[in-house]
Automatic annotation (TrEMBL):
PROSITE patterns: HTH_TETR_2. InterPro entries: Homeodomain-like_sf, HTH_TetR, Tet_transcr_reg_TetR-rel_C_sf. One of its GO terms (molecular function) is DNA binding. This is TetR family transcriptional regulator. Gene3D superfamilies: Tetracycline Repressor, domain 2. It comes from the Bacteria. Keywords: DNA-binding, Transcription, Transcription regulation. Residues 31-50 bind DNA.
Length: 201
């Protein structure tokens, strides 16, 4: 009888599989044995890389942050052209919500699952860290457009909450979301609203 050779997995593969589990079933779905079975790995492989399940959750959260915040910010434009960078950023994150599944779209599903599990200490810390990072980046882009610091922070928060609402709609009522040319027009209107004249006191 031929015994199948199990693949030797690295830490990244375990973290990516945990992210897939998070996207599909929330934090409760990050369980070592089902993930090991899905990967064709042993629990020994898991314990070679992680002390316990909490360490796997931490690694998954770090990977989500890297893919869905750091990599997105790095890939969406030169801050020297803040308006183009802002449009590219919004187009990337909003467009990916309705795109074919991929790392970024999976990350949106993870985000919604994490929002539901926001009282878990590790999840709360990750959401706080990621939200601050995103809002800081958006604030810097709006400031580069010439807005005063308070106004730039206000517009950044509006943009970030619009993104979260977009992701929530994608989960609950995806038919309401614009796609293709409609998304382009939506982005133009959103950018005009976000970068228009400052509010009157």
């Amino acid at each position: 009888m031929v015994v199948p050779v199990r693949k030797r997995l690295d830490r990244h593969e375990w973290a990516a599989a945990a992210l897939d589990a998070l996207a599909a079933g929330g934090l409760a779905a990050v369980a070592v044995e089902p993930i090991a079975a899905r990967l064709g790995a042993t629990k020994g492989s898991f314990y070679h890389h992680f002390r316990n399940r909490d360490a796997l959750v931490d690694a998954a959260l770090e990977l989500w942050e890297l893919r869905n915040t750091d990599a997105v910010i790095a890939a969406t434009g030169d801050p020297a052209d803040a308006r183009a960078a802002l449009r590219n950023l919004l187009g990337t994150v909003l467009g990916s919500v309705t795109a074919e599944p991929g790392d970024l779209a999976r990350g949106h599903a993870v985000e919604m699952a994490l929002q539901a599990d926001g009282r878990h200490p590790a999840v709360a810390a990750a959401l706080e860290r990621v939200s601050h990072r995103r809002i800081e980046h958006l604030t810097a882009l709006f400031a580069d457009l010439g807005l005063a610091p308070d106004e730039a922070a206000h517009r950044a928060l509006l943009a970030f909450t619009a993104y979260l609402g977009h992701v929530q709609l994608a989960r609950a009522t995806p038919d309401l979301l614009p796609r293709g040319a409609a998304l382009d027009a939506y982005l133009d209107g959103m950018l005009a609203a976000l970068t228009g004249a400052p509010r009157t006191p």
